Amino acid sequence: MIRKELRKDPVSGDWIVIAPGRAKRPHEHILKKPKRKASAVKGCPFENPGVNGHLPVLSYPNNERWRVQIIQNKYPAFTHEGGEVTREQHGPFSVLPAVGYHDVVVTRDHKNNFAHLPKGEANQLFQAFRDRYLMFSEHKSIEYALMFQNWGPTAGASIYHPHYQMIAIPVIPPDVDHSLEGSSRFYEKHKQCVHCAMIDWERKEKKRIIYENKEVVAFAPFVSRSPFEIRIFPKKHLPYFEDSDSRIFDSAVETLQKSLHSIEKKLNDPDYNFFIHTAPIRNKNDFQHYHWHIEILPKVTLRAGFELGTGVEINVVDPDEAAKLLRVR
Questions:
Q1: Inter-axis angle of helices 119-136 and 246-266, to 10 degrees?
Q2: In the CATH scheme, what is the homologous superfamily, with its name and number, of domain 45-326?
């Protein structure tokens, strides 16, 4: 019988249950879903965003032959009108205006998701992320920005056409704050980046490595919160995504494409979320202990009562087995 374990995440401090053995093979945990079908090109709001009422912010290249374009979300969760952010107190509650940015990054091809983009276009997408991120940093009220993709309806995407989002907000989100605190505690105790320690250990163990090149490594974390989770790290210690050079970006793009292609091929093309975690925009000297990275979370299982009621995640797939299945050969 495969051993079930509680494993503690050294960054967040959260306990995760690794509970394989509920089925004979990892494949049996994959949600069954109908084959993905592309929506019609006609009427798609992202075919020509400027014509369809979206305000373009940046285009790559900057002409009618664009391949990557940043537009303002028509229904933003945060808006940058209103100037400075002032905290208010309503009884016991603190309130801030939802000042920030909510952009959509669109790639031209209606069918090619990130895994299938030409390398140059995938690199342009990362360049767009970086350029817009630097523009966010000029707004003094912005504390944090997240770059992410929701792919498929169960991951939160209401439009088929491949697109990505960037949301910049005036606070540091709680999950990020917990990670920053955990990273800081580990550094103070061990004088080493916690993520660098995990990278070194995973590369030494070799059991959960999915793919690596000269600059970047992808693995199924020993403490994986969900089945087939993948994390991608630059091998060099870098707190800030925006400070990475072209070699790091090229290697990260290659690794992300190969990881997503493996997920698509071996897990029956599931919906997924990927997001880029980087250190906060302000007070850069305070976060040198952090290490930017990409997380991929395929939507292959559902959270149930125990997870929702306790915050303790149950992962029914051994990360060793997940890596064995997803490894890029």
A1: 120
A2: HIT-like (3.30.428.10)
